Amino acid sequence: LAGLPQAEALGLQVFHGGTTLRDGRVVTSGGRVLSITAVRDDLLQALGEANRGAATIHFQGATYRRDVGQRGVRLLQQPLYVSRGPGAGVPVHVFLLFLWGMALAENVPAAASTSLPPRRALMYKESRSELGGFAGFFDLKASGYEDPILVCQTKGLGAKLQMAQACQRHGTLGQDLVALCVNALLAQGAEPLFFLSYFTCGKLDAEVTEMIQEGIAEACRSAGCAFLGLEVSELPGSFSAGDSDLAGFVVGALERGQVALGLQRAEEEDVLLGLASPGIHGRGFGAVRKVLLVSSLRCSAPAPGSCGNTTLGEALLSPARLYSPALLPVLRSGHVKAFAPIAEEGLLGGISRILPEHVSAVLDALSWKIPEIFCWLYKEGNLSAEEMVQTFPCGIGAVLVVQQDLAQHVLGAIRRREEAWLIGKVVAPCHTGGSHIEVENLVEALQLGSPQGLLGTAAGHTQHQPGKKRVKVAVLVSGTGTALSALIAYTKEPGSCAQVVLVISSKSGVEELRNAARAGIPTRVIDHKLFGSRSEFDSTIDRVLEEFAVELICLSGFRRILSSPFLRKWKGKILNASPSLFPLIKDGDAPQEPPQSGFKVTGCTVHFVLEDPGPRAVIHQEPIPVRAEEPEETLSERLKEAECRAFPVALQLVASGAVSLAADGRTSWRQ
């Protein structure tokens, strides 16, 4: 090794890791050889000295990292200010020293560049500890606006922060805060420019604070706005050790001549578009706390319908969606009459804010996906349907009012970035009093979206009895089905009377095989191309079914026609789903009531598979309305969703014995 004395002469500490003494000389012995450490008052100076010391040391094959410490430099570009009570300001560098263990200078650089969009290049920030905080400067003229109007919003997380503390889950709070603030700006058609946040706590937790700051910074990048910084106050006299509060403030702009989104623009025959969001906010957490007090589940328990992939706490803390990248061009197109984020006040309250007094609205709850966490709250808390829509967003994060003939155009533009649906329409005012927003099919949607609701209400008394064996089920697939995941999820619920023990595919490498393997379910590939006849193929399937002691068979996109001997042997034991509500025919691959045929309703039928199919073998049907001028692709997707709801219900009915096939080929219901 050469250069060690020179490095030490620079005042550096050299720690040996892969060296040894040989003949009085220090030589390498492999691995990570040395660690060069510089201690200085300034981080950048320390980095430079450490790199200079590493460069003075030479040996064969020597190499060293040049990125060490750069994360600390990036964090310095997002200064934090910590206050420990009124009049007790602490300089920025002290907090960073505590948080990251780095010795920093007494003076933070007066200006630091940030990674911003090109027209934001003149945004910079400065430490102002003598003023009790820090200030940010934004060159509005250089940002590209000609005659701008500034719009500001401030929001807090309130009770959701307490839930995060109880669950020890803080990773999504940053996105939640930014999304609430930025989405509120969008209601005015404004573009977010810069964001500032304030965090108050009883006892500072460095890891939690860093996690929140990083979440805010990432969300600001997604929103296209600058993150000015996070001010932190430790107030032990005002907050207990586990308590905290988090608030955000955002400033945005729009041109003076841009069309404002007004409250009086909605008219009869306009339609409502809803954007998906799984989050719960504001007053909703008051109801959540009450439900948790009476529930047997805790925040660490698996979330309903998650198959163990998500905890209940994580589901309850799902963050709000950040809509500015997807919606800003749409809102400024002139095609949107009104926009409202659905957050603190629940679904009805959010929509009410954008409807003038002279109109009402009708929503169809079956037209959008209600996340299972809301269905669980509905059942577990014994809440009414009216309480649900008054308290929770029920899966809708924002609502737009658009003219009917522009609805599909706007919906298509939104769907390039976000999941969205046509959820209702503006109608003449109702004269019955009460709310002027009606939500149709809400009870059905909440029951169908709930795993326990599906299992518990399918036939009134179909719950699995403790100690009773579950019926063993095999699912046959060919790579085109959509119901396997739904069947697996629902058979894993405590109330399920069935258990998926085998998945057989007629093709190798299909996604269903991977899904089954992830769920720990045995799989088999029986390729029909390897058999000389259909009967030989069916006989092989039959042997495998007997090997696993299968009692029921579900066909999910299975593309092979089963032989008559196979169907006779398994009569009353094979279930299939067809995209139709009308008498079944042998070709069930496509919707049998297309929109252009004039039908107002279509749906999915789960039935027993017989040699001669007919309407008498129906187990369960899931109707869905056909919307005017709905594209076939959209209808097809809704039919797939209906199948995922209907198949688990039908399987529960048969496995529980509530439904069976009579000798005459008719469905028989247990009395």
**SS class:** alpha/beta
CATH superfamily of the largest domain: Formyl transferase, N-terminal domain
At CATH level 3, the topology of the largest domain is: Rossmann fold
Number of strands: 27
Number of domains: 4
Q: How far is the N terminus from the C terminus?
A: 89 Å
Provide mean pLDDT, rounded.
79
Shape designation: globular
- Tell me the β content: 15-25%
Unreliable segments (pLDDT under 50, ≥5 consecutive)? 79-132, 450-462, 583-599
If you had to describe this structure to a student in words, what would you say it looks like?
The protein has 671 residues and is an alpha/beta fold. It folds into four domains: 4-70, Glycinamide Ribonucleotide Synthetase, Chain A, domain 4; 141-255, 2-Layer Sandwich (60s Ribosomal Protein L30, Chain: A), CATH 3.30.1330.10; 270-449, Phosphoribosyl-aminoimidazole Synthetase, Chain A, domain 2; 471-584 and 598-669, Rossmann fold. 31% of the residues lie in helices and 24% in strands. It is built from 21 helices and 27 strands. Helix 17 runs parallel beside helix 21. The termini are far apart.
